[in-house]
Specification:
The protein has 418 residues and is of the alpha/beta class. The chain has a single domain, classed as FAD/NAD(P)-binding domain (3-Layer(bba) Sandwich), CATH 3.50.50. It is built from 10 helices and 19 strands. The longest helix has 29 residues.
């Protein structure tokens, strides 16, 4: 490709956020080209646990989070791990994160995040049903499970403190928890049921989104790595890739954890750090959980589908370390074995890791970029990319087409970091 390939809207990134933006822009009558460096959905969209959780409106930055992380500093299997390293960008991010570990910021973040999560939960279900997306969507809710009575009471106290900005939940004692979920072992303290949550199989959602985007006339170009982004006169002029140059009237940056790599090119501050998560997928065990579980003391998420079974989660800040850390995979297995009668399935299908795009304030960047009038950012969704995908797609389509946003997006404006 020698000449510049021109598009109406060019979307950088073919994960769940990029494809959701593509779909809603197509529905709004815009032409769309999506560039993906690998295969569609091969990043953090692929191997996560597929839970859709308005219940997760509270931020990672809570009182005591940093102290706990440093206490676990020498534990390579800790649920939250910070790998010691000299990285000025990460140290700045960590200091900004640490400043937000207080109740006042936690309450504000939860209050602005919940409307986005709840709207996206509704719109994602509407999309799945309207377009008949085959992604094993389920509305059984999620269950946060505790074995330690002190941890259960602490979680309950935190939830009650934030309750005005969280969806309703139900507290279950040990007997009620086992009655609802017989796959769990005895010896529980209790659980918190979030009936409004949902789940799906994320790799199938991505395949279905790609299918309907293509069917609606969108182009998806895979195997196209972005090398540079040039801007001129307050506009993105062209995007240089391994498959030539691309231009567009509007550009949407939806590169997830890779977004900061282009910040200098764009004269932007995009304070995102890659938060590495892991998962293991098996065929279904005989004694499967009925709903997605969060095994809280070990920070292990368990999701069951008709087509498989997955353990996932953990958070590791280790830069762009691309090794499959056996210690952290083994921690998932040991953690699940403490809670479940059958923690593993009969045949392993995949061991996986991916980088979540973590902002220091635990809110995504959705909106026009400062100083670049044809660039919209849709990145920084942390651990909730699937949950926030539909709302982000709707909002980006409204921004690009100059319509009134369906939600208040002031808290997500990229200019807050400028």
């Amino acid at each position: 490709m020698n000449r510049t390939d021109s598009s109406d809207v060019l979307i950088l990134g073919g994960g769940v956020i990029g494809l959701a933006c593509a779909w809603y822009l197509l529905k709004a009558g815009r032409g769309v080209t999506v560039l993906e460096q690998d295969r569609v959905g091969s990043g953090s969209s692929h191997g996560n646990c597929g839970t859709i959780t308005p219940s997760h409106a509270a931020p990672l930055a809570m009182p005591g989070t940093v102290a706990t992380a440093f206490k676990w500093l020498l534990r390579p299997d800790a649920p939250l791990r910070i790998k010691p390293r000299l990285d000025p960008e990460f140290l700045r991010w960590l200091l900004a994160f640490r400043r937000r570990c207080n109740w006042s910021d936690a309450l504000r973040t939860t209050a602005v995040k919940l409307p986005l999560l709840e709207a996206s939960r509704r719109w994602l279900e509407d999309l799945i049903l309207a377009e008949q997306l085959d992604c094993e969507f389920s509305t059984t809710g999620t269950l946060n499970v505790f074995r330690d009575p002190r941890e259960f009471e602490c979680a309950r106290a935190v939830h009650e403190r934030l309750a005005a900005h969280l969806p309703p939940c139900e507290y279950l004692d040990a007997a009620a928890t086992l009655a609802r979920e017989p796959a769990l072992k005895p010896g529980l303290a209790g659980a918190i049921l979030h009936a409004g949550d949902a789940s799906l199989r994320p790799d199938r959602l991505l395949a279905e989104l790609a299918r309907i985007v293509r069917a609606a006339g969108g182009r998806i170009i895979e195997g196209t790595r972005i090398e540079r982004i040039h801007h001129d006169g307050g506009r993105i002029a062209r995007v240089v890739t391994t498959r030539g140059e691309f231009g567009a009237d509007e550009v949407v940056l939806a590169l997830g954890a890779w977004s900061p790599r282009f910040a200098r090119d764009l004269d932007l501050r995009i304070p995102i750090q890659p938060g590495k998560g892991y998962s293991i997928t098996w065929t279904r065990p005989a004694r499967c959980p009925r709903m997605p579980l969060s095994l809280k003391e070990r920070a292990v998420c368990v999701t069951t589908w008709g087509s498989g079974y997955r353990l996932g989660s953990t958070m590791e800040f280790a830069g762009y370390d691309d090794t499959l850390n056996r210690t952290r995979l083994d921690a998932l297995r040991r953690g699940a074995a403490e809670y479940l009668h059958e923690p593993e399935g009969p045949a392993m299908v995949e061991e996986w890791y991916g980088w979540r795009p973590m902002t220091s304030d635990d809110l995504p960047l959705i909106g026009r970029a400062p100083r670049l009038r044809n660039l919209v950012l849709a990145t920084g969704h942390g651990m909730l990319g699937v949950t926030m995908s539909a709302a982000t797609g709707v909002l980006v389509s409204e921004i690009v087409t100059a319509r009134q946003p369906s939600l208040d997006i002031a808290a997500f404006a990229p200019a807050r970091f400028d």
